[in-house]
Description:
mainly beta, two-stranded antiparallel sheet, 8% helix, 53% strand
Amino acid sequence: xxxxxxxxxxxxxxxxxxxxxxxxxxxxxxxxxxxxxxxxxxxxxxxxxxxxx
Length: 53
């Protein structure tokens, strides 16, 4: 089983001339409690965001 969580970072980054707070997403394997993946995106995380980010 996997668990996914999102948090908006408390920093501003420049994305094409606009200040944005990036989103950090991590994926955890619930059996081992290991973080198996991390993504940082300038927009709210979603399946559609993958093609835009």
